[in-house]
Batch of 2 targets.
Target 1
Amino acid sequence: MSTKFERVQNTGRAKALLDAEPDGWMATLGARIAEAEPGRVVLELIAGPEHRHGGGVVQGGVITQIADAAMGMSLATLQPDGIWNTTIELKINFVRPAIEGRLRAVGRVIEMRQTLLFSEADVLDDHDRLIARASSTCMPVPEGQGRE
Amino acid sequence: MSSAHAVSPAWTWLGIRDVSADAGAAVVEMAATEEMANTMGYVHGGMISALADSAMGRALRTIEPRVSRSMSFDLKLNFIAAAKVGETLRATGRVVHAGRRTAVTECRVEGSGGRLVATASGTFAITRKKE
């Protein structure tokens, strides 16, 4: 299976993401895909007690999880069918604490190269205040081998 | 605003110079010389890191209440395309968030023709003037 670089507007994949029922980790976390178009995917999570650590704020891993997914999916919407991606590196800044309410991770594509893909995500609260900012590097992989 | 700031020995050594500054953003430039090359003949990543760090530090000096002191304690770069010796690299630093003690910034480094060379983000410890 070739993973040769090819950038396409995969509207079909964007629509499939939007239409899919939350499954796996998304169901566990209570996250869902709120918006999806080629190059931009938004994940949404209603933060509650189940997402908070002992300090009373939403745990950083939860925020990282929706940011990572928004970034990977935004890249996937510009990849052809048969190819997905996997994160090989990720960095996040936690800018302010989140306690409850809707959190949105807005993923966008920065650059796509043959072997490396670059994306960023802003995590915003219900008042559009910046909660976290993330960036990641991903690698194209064949779709459907349990690696995406 | 740029002339109001002292230029560090490191800036002088690398030939980094101020281009422009706005509220929350600053642009600096560096001409990549042969001394800055890595073994492959491209501009060494550390040189690009220094430029990005400088642009983000400069951007912090444009916000209110004023930042009197800033030190980066975290710097992350993505090297997206190779930069060539002889190119002028332009870094645009932006303030993403500024609190009382820390600030989050981002940066784009572009080569000739606006080609994206690197993106960066930095976290700074800052001291701000009282309002």
Target 2
Amino acid sequence: MKKLNKVMILCGMGFGSSFIVKTNVEKVLKEMGYDDVEVGHTDVGSAHEGIADFLICGNDLTESCERYGPVVSLSNLFDMDELRGKLEDYLKE
Amino acid sequence: MNLSNLIKKDHITFKKSVDSFEDAIYESGQVLLDKRIIEKKYLDKVIENVKTIGPYIVIAPMIALSHARPEDGANALGMSLLMLEEPINFSKDKDRKAKAIITLAASNENDHLDALSQMSKMLMENMESFLGAKDKETILKMIKNYS
């Protein structure tokens, strides 16, 4: 499994959607054994390169986020199975 | 503030269909506009964002969260819901259809977080029943269970 310090969830406005995902991400990371990861959320406009080890966003924002780091994109912000699957795929080395 | 305080009976609208996603956004936000919770420019901004950034407000299949930043024209905290019988596509070239259009407005960065968490939990646990709801009472009941 990859080492992980910080994950950033990005959404269009930094206002709502990213917050929805934050709780889910914290849950899944804990399940995967990542106890000490910082999970932040903000809008794409406030992001910069190196802001986190990797980024999570809705799939319509993928292109905008890719310049800031590796991206895991979601088609359904409420789907825990999708989130779990994609995080597992990304984090296994 | 709780979800049930924000989405009251008069904040829920059922409609058969709309002609465009712009119409869906205006219809969904109308009650908040009437109550001066938002200005028209707030909804204009949501539409502008969809046109420039993409249909990112369709956060899950069939669910759109219409929102912009507080400074784009939100005067207070408010939420409203438009349920369409026929989903409308928010994209010209991808499948980004939504039948539930939720408008969210907040005048700062935090007031809406409780209600948003409650709404997320509700949708995650009842997605099918929510999307299949045919009347306000069903939705209000669901909301009450999560507030």
